[in-house]
Each structure stands twice: as C-alpha cells, then as structure tokens.
Design a protein that fits this description.
By secondary structure, the protein is of the alpha/beta class. The chain is built from twelve helices and ten strands. The radius of gyration is 18 Å and the shape is globular. It binds guanosine-5'-monophosphate (G) (2 copies), manganese (II) ion and sodium ion. Sodium ion binds next to strand 6.
Length: about 260
C-alpha cells in the first residue's frame, strides 16, 4: 500500500496546503466567510485534491493529525488577516467523523483557539450528517460543548444522509449547507427547486441559516435568492484559492466599500 505510506509521510512532513473558498451573501454580495479545503502538495504529482485522499486519511486515522493541522493553520491565518485589519468573516473548517469521535476533540479545539487567538464566535465546524449520527450521545455532548465555547456547527452536504428531523431539533446547529447535487440542475419549477425550497423553509423555521454549495450560475443564485437562502459558495463567485489570493480578495473587498 504505497499510498498509505506516502500519505503517512506527507502528514508527518506537513506536505499540505490550505485553500480557501469564500461564501457570499446572496442578498448583498458581501463575503460572509470562507471554507478551508485542504490540498496535498505532492512532490511528483503536484496538487492533489481532498477527494483523492480524505477517505484514506479517515480509514487510517491520519485525518486526526491532519485535521488538527488544518484547523490550527487556518485559525493562525484568520488571526493574521484580522491583525492586518481585514475582515475574513466566519472561518468554516471540515471535521470528519473520526475526529469528532476523539474523546479529547473539544479540548483540542479549545487549546487551538487559545494558542492562535482565533475568535471562537467566528469559527464554524462543518460536520457531515453521518458524523452527527455516529455514536449519537457523544456527538450531542460534543456539539453542546463546542456550542458553549461559542463555536457554530453546520451540517455539510445536507440532504444526502439520514439525519432525522428529531436530531436537527435536538442539536444546537446554526447552519445547513445544501449539497452540490441539489444545486446543479436548479431551475425554477424543477424537482431540485422543490427540494431546496423545502430545506430552506425547514432550516429557517428551526432557526438555522442556509448556504448552498456548488453555485455555478446566476440562474441558480436567483432561484436560491427567491427562497431566501442566505449564502452561496461556488464557481460563480470563486474557486478555492491559496491564502495569498484570498488575502488579495479580502483587500479589494475592503477598498470597494
Ligand atoms: O476541494 P474538494 O471539493 O475536492 O473537497 C472534497 C471534499 O473533501 C469536500 O467534501 C470536503 O468536505 C472534504 N475536505 C476538504 N478539506 C477537508 C479537511 O480539511 N478535512 C476534512 N475532514 N474534509 C475535508
Ligand atoms: O465540504 P465539501 O465537500 O462540500 O467541499 C466543497 C467542495 O466542492 C470542494 O472540494 C470544492 O473544490 C468543490 N466546489 C466548490 N465550488 C464548486 C462548484 O461551484 N462546482 C463544483 N462542481 N464543485 C465545487
Ligand atoms: Mn464542507
Ligand atoms: Na459539502
């Protein structure tokens, strides 16, 4: 298993890079925040996307040190931007089920916040429906503990899993991220419009906000706007980008105000 050995070595040597993808308000076009998406800086193959290694990282447990590194690195970057007078908004970090199951996960997050000076009110952790469901008692306890720290929890890829309405009610969840596949063929009067509008209505009634993923066209953005979806993320706005490009974007955003 060359890949596992390679991945382990890459985690040891920190051959990764955080990319950032902005999330925009669909109402006023402001940057609401950004999601950090990790890339593997492979010495022979160039930049490798998470689709090719996150699952393996989960299976091998390597996601635990890798995820911790991503969180720390992104929090440091966020703080640096704040120190430069920029407004990065909310920082959304993906957390895998494996990380979420660690007994010391909340404690680790807490020490990373202290160490980096990251504002807990600006941190958002994205968990998948399956991570929220796995070992539910612990998941509930972790979500409450993180919430007590001021951290927001969002459900990633919402609509693809088996999370019940009962859990949504039980958890202090701030945001649902609508899975890309529901946005892809989103037109007025389409099946996807019915699904998307239902998710948004339910989220709002339960006090949650909504961000749509994979927004690629103005038509999709318009349908989402009609249903009062708060945020959009996708190629219509920007692809995920390295920190220095995100910094330029944050600067030009300030100059335009
Ligand atoms: O960037 P891309 O679309 O290829 O990302 C694919 C998937 O990898 C996304 O669903 C995203 O949630 C996941 N992913 C990206 N970065 C991280 C990370 O730092 N940790 C975890 N657990 N998943 C990530
Ligand atoms: O956590 P999640 O798996 O949702 O991460 C978002 C993933 O979707 C990232 O890997 C990112 O590169 C990808 N992505 C972001 N915007 C778009 C988009 O507009 N279209 C498509 N097809 N993929 C996108
Ligand atoms: Mn995500
Ligand atoms: Na997603």
């Amino acid at each position: 298993m060359v890949m596992v050995r390679e991945l382990r070595k890459a985690v040891e040597d920190l051959h990764f890079l955080p990319y950032y993808q902005p999330q925009y308000s669909l109402h006023n076009g402001n940057i609401l925040g950004m999601e950090v998406l990790v890339r593997w800086k492979h010495q022979d193959r160039g930049m490798i996307g998470p689709g090719e290694f996150i699952q393996l990282a989960e299976e091998t447990g390597l996601i635990v040190p890798l995820g911790e590194w991503v969180l720390r690195t992104a929090c440091m970057q966020w703080k640096e931007w704040r120190n430069k007078g920029l407004s990065p908004g909310k920082l959304a970090v993906n957390v895998s089920a494996k990380q979420f199951q660690q007994n010391d996960f909340v404690h680790k997050v807490e020490s990373i916040l202290e160490e980096t000076g990251m504002d807990s009110q600006s941190l958002e952790l994205e968990i998948t429906e399956s991570a929220a469901m796995y070992d539910t008692d612990k998941a509930v306890a972790n979500i409450h503990a993180l919430s007590d720290l001021g951290i927001a929890i969002s459900i990633d890829d919402f609509g693809t899993g088996y999370l019940s309405f009962g859990y949504l009610k039980k958890f202090p969840i701030q945001k649902l991220k609508i899975e890309r596949s529901f946005v892809r063929d989103l037109r007025a009067d389409s099946d996807n419009e019915a699904i998307v509008s239902t998710i948004i209505t339910m989220a709002h009634k339960l006090g949650m906000s909504v961000v749509a993923e994979g927004v690629e066209t103005e038509e999709q953005a318009q349908v989402l706007r009609t249903h009062r979806c708060e945020g959009g993320q996708g190629y219509l706005f920007h692809q995920p980008m390295p920190a220095q490009d995100m910094e330029k974007l944050l600067k030009s955003n300030m100059n335009n105000r």
